[in-house]
Amino acid sequence: MTSPRTAPGAGPGFAVETRTHLRDVLDWHFDPATGSPFWLSRAGFLDFDPRRDIAGLADLVRFPDLCRELRGVPAEDLIPRGMAGRRLEVFDSGGTSGRPYRRVDAGAVEDNVDWCSGVLDEHGFPEGVNWLHVGPSGPHVVGRAVRYFAARRGGLCFTVDMDPRWLAKLVATGQQETADDYVEHLLDQIEAVVLTQDVRCASVPLHLVDELCARPQVYETLAERLRGLLWVGTAGSNETMSLLRTMFPAAAISGWYGDTVMGIAAERACESGPERPCVFRPYHPASVIQVVDAASREPVGYGQRGRVLRHLLTREAFLPNLLGRDTALRVPPLPGDDVDGIASVAAVGGGPFAEEVL
Fold it and tell me: How far apart are CA 232 and CA 90, in angstroms?
């Protein structure tokens, strides 16, 4: 394993040699003593030996995309035998493209959030303050992540639960009036927190920020108090980011992007230029994100748009070669780093509730 290094925008204290990590994960999941029933039962149907023939990340596309099959797998079959006796949690995918699939977790999510905390330090987010989180709680990763994250940084976390599956269903079936009523219900709850509690940082879906700002007392309170605004979802435009910085001048502003498979990709903190583009970096190599041609699954060139391909590589969960519903631009690594960024993320099909949710 190489000696630790810290790349700009990669988060302090995070460095793992990719090839060594991949070898450890493959050995773990395909060893009969430590692997899960799911992967051990499928190993014999592969036309290659994962422990011998997968030499690097580029070889992960040899695995079949099992997204459809994963939607019906009992969670117990996903638990590696080596995790017996560990405290485990189960998280669902967003389920916006059909029945959700699941991953089991024994601490990888907390590791991901610890790394994200370091990235937010680089953005200038304060510690020791209270947070407001607007978004899904269970069964999605983000609710668990933000509550842990706020406690880790020394503050309380006030939550307003939002069901993105319900909103997506209402919008998809033409029930816009009911969807609008539900959004108003969320805004009422947010207002009750903002006007009574000392909230200094907030985690809010990007598409709700405009709605919040349309309530004068809520906006004035947030504009005065917020020292950190973490927006969640697919990437907003440069114009939107510039507007946020104008509306909340005292707040550090950053974004999180991700889903149940990839976990959380944090916005790089070292971008420069007048428009300060929003570029996300995954928690590599536990989470590997590639921007590829959807048909060939070959990486597109830098600056080109392709589909987001996810690989989750942890001891709790091995989920390779899963094509996401989003498209993005492939961005070169920052100097000193070797991990691509992704930018201008957009959900296939569009719509504010079309993307997978964390």
Answer: 21
3-state secondary structure of 45: helix
CA distance 259 to 265: 9
Least confident of 23-27, 102-106, 139-143, 148-152: 139-143
For residue 332, what pLDDT is reported? 95
Residue from 16, 33, 147 nearest 80 by CA: 33
What distance in Å separates the CA atoms of residue 330 and residue 333, rounded to the nearest whole number?
Answer: 10
Q: What percent of the chain has pLDDT over 90?
A: 65
Cα→Cα distances 73→7, 103, 141, Å: 38, 10, 19
Per-residue pLDDT tens over the stretch 115-174: 999 999 999 999 999 999 998 877 788 878 888 889 999 999 999 999 888 888 899 899
Which residues touch 350 (CB under 8 Å, ≥6 apart)?
none
> Within 10 Å of residue 224's Cβ, how many Cβ atoms?
9
Burial 46-75 (b: 16+ CB within 10 A, else e): eeeebeeebeebebbbebeebbeebeeeee
**33-44 residue pLDDT tens:** 999 999 999 999
Q: At what angle do helices 176-194 and 164-172 cross, to 10 degrees?
A: 150
* Dist CA 157 CA 149 (whole Å): 9
